[in-house]
Amino acid sequence: MGRAAEMLGATPAFLRALGEHRLITPLRSEGGHRRYSRYQLRIAARARELVDQGVPIEAACRIVILEDQLEEAQRINERLRTQSAESQPKSSA
Predict the structure, then answer these.
(1) What's the short name of a Pfam family annotated to this entry (predicted)?
(2) What is the residue-averaged pLDDT of the chain?
(3) Residue 23 near residue 8 (C-beta atoms within 8 A)
(4) What pTM, to 2 d.p., does this model score?
């Protein structure tokens, strides 16, 4: 956890707070140490940006969750558009 916090320029308490707000849930090593994925660190970094801008941590966590959901929905929509365009019959001119 200390290394992850250092990478983010945050404190271990900040990472614990993100866990308490259910933004990220780190895996645990056999020794009980928290282990964060790259994705979780990216999410935590975005939350830190918002908090640094004065957004309360609860709101920052919600914003990050909504941004992530929007990004996923946009990826799905693009994939469906591509699949739909590929399945359209070609017109002969």
Answers:
(1) MerR_1
(2) 92
(3) no
(4) 0.80
